[in-house]
Amino acid sequence: MKLFWKENREFFLLLFCIVFFKSAIADLSSISGASMLPSLLDGDKVWVNKLAYDIKIPWTEISLAEISDPKRGDIVIIDSKRAGKRLVKRIVGVPGDKIYMHNNALVINGQPASYQVLSREGDTVTILEELPDKVHHARLSRGFYNLSSRSYGPSIVPESQYFVLGDNRDNSADSRVYSFVPRGEIIGRSNAVVFSLDSTNKYLPRSKRFLANID
Questions:
Q1: Is the pTM of this model over 0.85?
Q2: Cα(171)–Cα(50) distance, rounded to whole angstroms?
Q3: Which of 29, 89, 177, 183 has a beta carbon 3.0–4.6 Å from 173's, enabling a disulfide?
Q4: Average pLDDT rounded to a whole number, residues 97-112
Q5: 113 near 129, Cβ under 8 Å?
């Protein structure tokens, strides 16, 4: 046993460092599905900064220190207990915000978001949505499905919790389904795609997505 450890200790040390880094500092997360279109595509591998908000004990959700608060407009990776899976969504409401939606139009603390139509393709409309602190792309559908999810609230975001939405508003299970997200379930923040594989084209890499910034 001692000989085995002596011959392989460098490998195990390297393995420990990799696992520690992925658990506490940074990792990659895979995007599956269309809930974050047009910002994120199915097959994107995004960078996850796990030190964006908290320093946590590795392999746990226990926070040792808070670095900064999640901000409106941040794209976050969530270990959702209610959903039973990992989610990638955009923060729209922070603690204390009053959130109201009517037919996909957001009102935050009584201030309506501004919208600009960028393109129309079939039943899909791509817009530029201007929140109080962030401008980003979003996608709407002109179809008649999911009408119930287009309106919400008004509701106040509780302390230490967040209201999140997918950018593809008519095709996203988010806080309208799973309610508010506790801060402790937020794994980290993402602002870049590392690489992307196109599932519709034999999983070939999308060259334009390599190290692409996310708005």
A1: yes
A2: 27
A3: 177
A4: 95
A5: yes
